[in-house]
Design goal:
Layout (H helix, E strand, L loop, with lengths): L2 H13 L5 H14 L4 H4 L4 H8 L3 H8 L5 H12 L3 E5 L7 H6 L8 E6 L8 E6 L5 H16 L4 E3 L5 H11 L4 E4 L8 H7 L8 E5 L9 H14 E7 L9 H7 L10 E4 L5 H8 L3 E3 L2 H12 L4 H4 L18 H9 L6 H9 L10
Parallel strand pairs: 3-7, 4-5, 5-6, 7-8, 8-9
Antiparallel strand pairs: 1-2, 2-6
Helix pairs in contact: 1-2, 1-6, 4-5, 8-9, 8-14, 11-12, 16-17
Amino acid sequence: MDANQEAAYWLALLNTNQVKRQLAKRVIHRWCVAEGRPLAALFDLGAAEAAERLDLTHAEATQVLAAGPDVAAQRATLARLSTRDAGIITRTDAAYPDLLTERLPEERLPYYLFYSGDLDNLTQPGVAILGGAQPSPAAQELVGAMASALADEGHLLVGGYDRGVDRQALDDGHGAGAAITLLLPAGIETMGPVLQRLAPRGRADRVLALSPFAPATPYSDALAAFRMCLVGALAEVLVLVAPDKGPDAMADLRDLFASSETPASRRALAWTGDRGEATRAWIEAGAQPFDGAEAGVAHVLARFGVVDAKAARGAGVDDLAGVEPIVFQDADSAIEALEQSGRVPAALARRLREAQWDDDWEDE
């Protein structure tokens, strides 16, 4: 079956007003995720059989199957988006981010993501640099320096393209050559002007925009807040620069990053150049403090834990304060080194195994 045709069934069921979203997700999880069946096949059943096979009441099964007539309209939407180089991935697609399923509970997962851009970005964890909407000149200087340095190191930057620190980090990183992933706070068609501003830079193939909302969904504060938990799940490290909100006001990010573990294992960093109350609260919640761009980048690199053999001979690696490079020659040795500090995400392991390894590096 054509992928868009199957996705059209998902959209019809998840977006109908006749079925509550949690019921729709429960049906899809049982039928598609757990049992590996195409959702289209469910709509070939009668209400009685669907109710029996999915442990639904007859009324619930009838409501679910009533979404069938909406499939044609959803297929037309997907066809229209494809002419604009946009598409969709669902919860069971191979491209769906492993990091979301590993870090978020099932009830919090978006069951589809509209996208525009480079899906290769989903094969690696990123760095999120987030903070206040009106950063000081010193904060802006720090963000620019860190974003550029991380771009030079080949790191993906992920964010929500919110005003202030978030947007500057993505813009500066992209301008310096970094791949970036944006989690949109509205539908992908609604956010079209934002994506058009990024495209002329000449690196549109390194930009990925994701939206867990229907294409024409307008912006709302609630949707903007929800998409930040996705930013957190796709980021390996969170860097907080002069944040406007403390951890209690950003519970999704707090739960993903703040920790009472040892400083070396924490994945959240907070810049001490901002002496605001929110910054102090993040540090008290477990974020590792750092005082400048060089120290911040060193902390980020240490949390990723590995520098490859070719980069280890580069001019600047030994100058990274507090970072001891771990040299490796192939995917298995890289994964083994990473496992010394915790579980290696499936997406990162896959990316390492798919990488091209040069056996002659040591002879160069």
